[in-house]
Design goal:
Helices cover 69% and strands 0% of the residues. The chain is mainly α and 117 residues long. It is elongated. The relative contact order is 0.04.
Length: 117
């Protein structure tokens, strides 16, 4: 998923720019300073209105995806019928600090997020 996330971070702005921007929008930078405040507001409002539909579609798709994940059937975890090996490994552990892989995993995620910024 990390690779897909980085790829989506590159592709998403390009796709949204292709959907939202038009060829005439490149002239906005030069024409906006010469417009009256009313004209400028009208042009910027029209520009902003083009953003509403793509973001609404994206939000709807993500909401539906969340519902699919929420209502997807997942297997129940039955700890009463776990294997003898698993029960022996986890017996006597009463704290989160008794699981070193969990602590090291949380540290790794923290450092990974810190290096990406």
């Amino acid at each position: 998923m990390g690779i897909c996330n980085k790829f989506a971070g590159i592709i998403a702005p390009l796709i949204f720019a292709a959907v939202i921007l038009r060829v005439t929008d490149t002239d906005l930078e030069r024409t906006l300073p010469g417009m009256t405040p009313a004209e400028k507001a009208a042009v910027l409002d029209a520009f902003i209105r083009r953003v509403i539909l793509p973001y609404s579609v994206l939000g709807s798709v993500l909401f539906i995806l969340g519902l699919v994940v929420r209502y997807s059937p997942l297997p129940e975890i039955n700890t009463e019928n776990e294997s003898v090996e698993t029960a022996a490994v986890n017996s006597g552990k009463t704290s989160i600090f008794d699981f070193p892989h969990l602590i090291l995993g949380a540290l790794a995620i923290f450092l990974h997020v810190g290096t990406r910024s």
